[in-house]
Specification:
Length: 305
């Protein structure tokens, strides 16, 4: 995997990709690079104004690309169902579950879930289940890539209090939601293998990449000093969104990606070319992944066929 870059992305002509959170950061770069290599890309974005601006910029940066915008709010299960129902494409070759929120003050989704668990995990769980028939229709080569984080090491989902209703701590909640992403990938890969499906479920993380994700909480709380501090830190030590998107792109397109692989930057979970990443042992626990799956089906009402 040494030195893998966007130049190594195989031709994606004839393939359809859905990328959530494609209006900025690593989601934008992931969508743009897939489009540059010939994929038809659906930009699944919550904010359609920002999404439209991203679509126009993408067309300018990748002339002739086949992209279109579709509204998707992962914090609203009605929006997730509407997106899946109205998706025009009959097959989906790549689903990149990229969108997310980080370390927010305590908030609830439209459906009453804790915002980080609801957006980062439950929204993507529901979306993947609803699009799975189209992924199966794509046949060999279809992949689901869910973007986790090196900060999943902060903790795993507590089945007694999965949404931290009793004592909410924003960073712990973020870490647990990212562990949920890996538990979901583990269980999805196991279930696909059991049914003999060629669809590959893998995960990725960007290391420390400079995106809008880090400043969202500070803006939400009107803490200008914190926002400026994060921006300074990003300039000093973070890698670019272009580099941060490489693990997602590798997991989505490179040969040899195996079910339940976790791809991240080579250097200390931080930066560098993509490679298979270390992960917390609890993200490979069959009992925990099955328990989270059952809980997720009950909360979202989405049952995988």
């Amino acid at each position: 995997m040494t030195g893998w870059t966007t130049r190594d992305i195989p031709d994606q002509s004839g393939r359809t990709a859905v990328v959530t959170g494609a209006n900025s950061g690593i989601g934008y770069v992931t969508a743009r690079e897939l489009a540059r290599r010939g994929a038809r890309v659906v930009l699944a974005c919550r904010d359609t104004t920002r999404g439209k601006a991203a679509e126009e910029l993408m067309r300018a940066q990748a002339p002739g690309c086949d992209v279109r915008l579709a509204e998707l709010d992962l914090a609203d299960l009605t929006s997730v169902r509407t997106f899946a129902t109205e998706l025009r494409e009959e097959r989906v070759d790549l689903l990149v579950n990229n969108a997310g929120v980080m370390a927010l003050p305590h908030r609830r989704t439209v459906d009453g879930f804790e915002m980080q668990f609801g957006t980062n995990h439950l929204g993507h769980f529901a979306l993947t289940g609803l699009l799975l028939p189209r992924l199966r229709a794509a046949g060999p080569g279809a992949r689901v890539v869910t973007v986790s984080s090196g900060l999943h090491f902060l903790g795993t989902v507590d089945p007694r209090d999965p949404q931290m209703d009793h004592r909410y701590r924003r960073w712990a909640a973020y870490g647990r939601s990212k562990s949920a992403n890996l538990l979901f990938t583990h269980e999805l890969a196991r279930r696909l293998a059991a049914e003999g499906s060629p669809v590959v479920a893998a995960a990725a993380h960007p290391g420390y990449a400079s995106t809008n994700l880090q400043t969202a909480a500070a803006r939400m709380e009107d803490r200008a000093w914190a926002e400026q501090a994060v921006r300074l830190l990003n300039r000093l030590v973070a890698q670019s969104p272009e580099d941060g998107a490489l693990p997602s792109l590798y997991a989505a397109t490179a040969a040899g990606v195996r079910p339940d692989d976790f791809v991240g930057p080579r250097v200390q979970l931080w930066r560098g070319s993509p490679t298979r990443s270390v992960r917390a042992p609890w993200t490979l626990d069959d009992r925990a992944s099955a328990g989270l799956w059952t809980l997720s089906e009950r909360l979202t009402g989405v049952t995988y066929a």
